[in-house]
Amino acid sequence: MKVIDILRATSGKISDESILDEKISEIKIDSREVCSGDVFVAIKGNKFDGHDFIDEALRNGALLVICSKHMNSKMSFIEVTDTTQALGMIAGYIIRKYKPTTIAITGSTGKTTTRNLIYHLFSHKYKCLTNEKNYNNKIGVPLTAFKLRKDVDFLILELGMNHLGEISYLSKMIKPNCAVITNIGSSHIGFLKSKENILKAKLEILDGMKDNLLFINGSDLLLKNLKGINIISSGEGPNDLQAYNVCGNLFSSSFNIRLKGSEYLIEVNLPYHLISDVLLSINVALYYGIDINEIIERLKTYKTFDKRMSILKDINNNTIINDCYNSSFESLTGVLKLLDDDSKKILILGSIKELGEYSKKIHASLKPYLDKIKNKKLILVGKEMRDIGVDALFFNNYSEVIDYLSDFDVRDTLILIKGSRSLKLENIYNYFISKKAH
Questions:
Q1: Mean per-residue pLDDT, 76-84
Q2: For the whole prediction, is pTM greater than 0.85?
Q3: What does the alpha-carbon distance between residue 161 and residue 133 come to, in Å, rounded to a whole number?
Q4: Burial letters for 357-373: b for 16+ Cβ neighbours within 10 Å, e otherwise?
Q5: Could you give all domains of the chain from N- to C-terminal order, each with its CATH number?
Q6: Contact between 64 and 7 (Cβ < 8 Å)
Q7: Cα angle at 242 between 240 and 243, to 5 degrees?
Q8: Torsions phi, psi of 378, nearest 5?
Q9: pLDDT at 438 over 50
Q10: Dihedral in degrees, nearest 10, Cα atoms 278, 282, 284, 289
Q11: Cα angle: 112, vertex 206, 274; to 5 degrees
């Protein structure tokens, strides 16, 4: 890209027209990461203002600064009204320039798993780009789009939100060819007040869509009744792609599907409460021409990723399950339902956040699921977990848990660590790793 492209995208005011033909290396929002030839966008956040770091970006070699304040005329800058909005405008421009097939994924739970499954299935055959880390908001999605190049066939983007209007903004930015909605759960219900509003927020993914094609989990009570758009469903309906002969545990699953009169065995290294995400990814891959036999072989090689159901075996024969990326009522109970054997267990569970006035009720409704689990030690982290009303050890944070665990020799135990991201329970997982896990 050239500086002229940035100017066209943002419709801002440029300080130095002589650099319009200069080529841009990359677009950055972190001044520490800026290199020679980069564009630095001064984002204003809740806890920082990127304008305070412009001098550092220039010292590191920034070719151009995008800002919302009039700056020293000795540097080259484009002045815009809102730098975050400019970030989105540039991202949209880049996507329109390179024209990848764009798949947008959202849902209350399972969207990251579904996104990674689709990427895994597609990347064997096509050049693909997908979100890094948890880059699924109005900052992260543009940062992903900035890595787009003309040889990318598929742009596979997860879109997140916690308020109405956020997914609409992202959808209009990326203009997806198709969309995927995994489910409608209770995540962010504290902000949105009802599942019907959560559905409304997720359906905003259609606002910028080109081809009016939506893949849904047809087992979801709210999604299965959608009408008026082109829907491809997986789940329980008579025309859905369905899983049957389901077998599985916390670590892997197998099931059968039927396509055009033929039966196929699917095997994947995911717990069986995530089969709905697997079915969604299969449907998307089939639609875009990937052969079912290729899909079957690729699913066999799928691996979980950092903080999401990653599994470690340590030198004391403990099986440690790290699922600290986030938590919701649906995802937590999905895991708890799998703990029905007699093995020794330590459950380290953190609060579910962003539930607002529903927090006490939702946490209390975890009790019957926990009561059914045998042979367990229950460690609960966060003040909200005290609302469950179960016999447990309560801690305020991960540090207190680590202090407690350091006094014990834990052996031959299944250890589940799961909680909302803000609790940073992955530090407990790292504690076990530090004890020479392998």
A1: 95
A2: yes
A3: 15
A4: ebbeebbeebeebbeeb
A5: 3-81 (3.40.1390.10), 99-300 (3.40.1190.10), 310-434 (3.90.190.20)
A6: no
A7: 170
A8: -110, 120
A9: no
A10: 160
A11: 25
